[in-house]
Every structure is written in structure tokens, then in C-alpha cells.
């Protein structure tokens, strides 16, 4: 019996600095995401879109923009992901901006703790998303989800999954990083995050980077992939609000996804920051769907089972 994937739409740009990511879930559907996953042998349940507060488009208050609304959206995502995990389905969150990672990863982390399973989170992104109210230049909460998950942020986000931080730094692997604010950089170093930035990928190659990032993966680990579409170089993915030149090529990104698929342990996924308002003929959504198809097992040749 094949695994069932539950699509959970979270159509909001509440944590972003540009409008438009709220249209991301529908763009992914239009690009054929469900059919692509079915081609890989999965059953797909589209649960529709969550309904949260609108975007008031206000300036930051005490270092945070739209904190109340971001908390509401993350509580909805947390509940939805928790419900799908309880049903034995693989939750695939269609964002929306990356502030939603607090609810998504938080739910997965609590699920793993309760099941006694080790967790590894692969954060595929141009940014470390480790800002705080006192470090952020913008107040946009899509730049803060990793900090919140590690215990640094407002109580309503930090405590979403319980009294302890959702993530420990050793459970996290960041790939493709190339844009980090000055104060954020020092904070990342202090917390000893496992970051594979673009210079590392340039020097060592994506294969060696992924081998290092996957090193020591426990046999029973739950792998969560939080895929910010700006991970890719904007030549391949222009439809994002925070483009940063010099990212992975289409093929490097495919290899990253294929090596994650090879683990056989991917148990939950986010696709975030797709902004159709900035895209060209939905091309970025089509690229995202191709990459997710690789994450769920598509390869040039049928791979022989290991062992």
C-alpha cells in the first residue's frame, strides 16, 4: 500500500516583505503537483487551503511585523500538520511565506519527540532565517522561523509546540545559504548551526556537501525538508520575493533532492516563498514541482534497491 501525501495549503504572505506568496499554493496546484506525486506512486489527498487572517500590511511593532497574524497562521499550520501525521500521512505544506515553518517544523518535532524518533531538518534556502527582533533590519517574520524554532523569539511562536524549543541546532542542516544579515551571522556562529553556504558548495560540490549533511543520519530518522524556492538561483526561479544571485543550478538542486530521496526517510515537506506575482508564466512553480518530484523518487534511471 503506497504512502499517502496530504497537501495542506497555507495561502498567506503575512510574514514576507512583498505581497504575492499567498498565491503560491494555487500556483503549485496549477503546475501539476498532485499529478507529479501520483506519477511517483503516491496517493495524494488535497486538504484544501487553511483560512487565516488577512495581511494588514502594517509597519513593525517592537521588532515584529504582523506578529499576531503570524501566530494565528502558524497555529493553524501546526494543527493541520499534527492531524495529518496522526493519520499516518506525509504532510506537504504549500506556502505561503517561510514564517509558516514555525508551525510546520514545530508539529513535526513534537510528533517525533512523542514517537521517540530522531529528527533531521534540511533547510534549503538562500537565507538562514535566524533573525530576531533585535537583529532584524525589517521586522519581517519570514526571516525568523529558525530562530523561533531554536527558542529565540516571541512566546507565541517559541512555545507553539510545548515549553521546550522545537529544534536543537544539531538537528538542523542548512543548504544553499548566501544572504545573511551582519548581526544574524554572529548569532548563527554562536549557536553553532550546521550551515553549508554557497562557497562550500562551490568548493566541494553538491554531492560532497550532501554526503556531509546526511552523515550520521540515524536509521529511524524522520527527515523534514523545508524548501524555500529562493534556494535556487533566480535564473531558474525568478518568482520569489527575495531573489539572491549565485544559488544552486537546476541540476545541483536536483542532485540535492535526489540524495534526500535516496535516504528513504523523508516524512514531511514545506514548499514556501513561491510568489506568482513575480513569476513568468508560472515557470518557477513548474521548476518547484520538478524538484519535489525528484524529492519523492524521480530519477533518470530506476535505481536498484540498496542491500
TrEMBL record:
EC category name: hydrolase
UniProtKB keywords: Arginine metabolism, Hydrolase, Manganese, Metal-binding
EC id: 3.5.3.1
InterPro entries xrefs: Arginase, Ureohydrolase, Ureohydrolase_dom_sf, Ureohydrolase_Mn_BS
Pathway where it operates: Nitrogen metabolism; urea cycle; L-ornithine and urea from L-arginine: step 1/1
Pfam families: Arginase (PF00491)
Cofactor remark: Binds 2 manganese ions per subunit.
Cofactor annotation: Mn(2+)
Reactions mediated catalytically: L-arginine + H2O = urea + L-ornithine
PROSITE patterns, per database record: ARGINASE_1 (PS01053), ARGINASE_2 (PS51409)
Annotated family: Belongs to the arginase family.
Name of this chain's protein: Arginase
Species the sequence originates in: Castellaniella daejeonensis
Gene (name only): rocF
Amino acid at each position: 500500500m503506497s504512502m499517502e501525501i496530504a497537501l495542506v495549503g497555507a495561502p498567506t504572505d503575512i510574514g514576507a516583505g512583498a505581497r504575492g506568496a499567498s498565491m503560491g499554493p494555487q500556483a503549485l496546484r496549477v503546475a501539476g503537483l498532485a499529478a507529479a506525486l501520483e506519477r511517483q506512486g503516491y496517493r495524494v489527498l488535497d486538504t484544501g487551503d487553511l483560512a487565516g487572517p488577512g495581511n494588514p500590511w502594517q509597519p513593525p511593532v517592537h521588532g515584529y511585523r504582523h506578529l499576531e497574524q503570524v501566530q494565528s497562521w502558524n497555529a493553524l499550520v501546526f494543527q493541520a500538520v499534527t492531524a495529518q501525521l496522526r493519520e499516518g500521512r506525509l504532510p506537504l505544506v504549500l506556502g505561503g511565506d517561510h514564517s509558516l515553518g514555525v508551525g510546520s517544523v514545530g508539529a513535526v518535532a513534537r510528533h517525533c519527540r512523542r514517537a521517540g524518533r530522531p529528527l533531521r531538518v534540511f533547510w534549503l534556502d538562500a537565507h538562514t532565517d535566524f533573525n530576531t527582533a533585535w537583529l532584524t533590519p525589517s521586522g519581517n517574520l519570514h526571516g525568523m522561523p529558525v530562530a523561533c524554532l531554536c527558542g529565540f523569539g516571541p512566546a507565541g511562536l517559541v512555545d507553539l509546540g510545548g515549553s521546550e524549543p522545537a529544534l536543537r541546532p544539531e538537528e538542523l542542516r542548512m543548504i544553499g545559504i548566501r544572504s545573511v544579515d551582519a548581526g544574524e551571522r554572529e548569532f548563527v556562529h554562536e549557536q553553532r548551526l550546521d550551515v553549508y553556504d554557497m562557497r562550500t558548495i562551490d568548493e566541494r560540490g553538491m554531492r560532497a556537501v550532501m554526503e556531509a549533511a546526511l552523515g550520521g543520519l540515524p536509521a529511524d530518522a524522520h527527515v523534514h525538508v523545508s524548501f524555500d524556492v529562493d534556494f535556487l538561483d533566480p535564473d531558474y526561479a525568478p518568482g520569489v520575493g527575495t531573489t539572491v544571485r549565485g544559488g544552486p543550478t537546476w541540476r545541483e538542486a536536483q542532485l540535492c533532492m535526489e540524495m534526500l530521496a535516496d535516504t528513504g526517510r523523508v516524512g514531511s515537506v514545506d514548499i514556501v516563498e513561491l510568489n506568482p506575482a513575480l513569476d513568468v508564466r508560472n515557470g518557477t512553480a513548474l521548476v518547484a514541482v520538478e524538484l519535489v518530484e525528484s524529492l519523492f523518487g524521480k530519477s533518470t534511471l530506476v535505481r536498484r534497491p540498496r542491500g
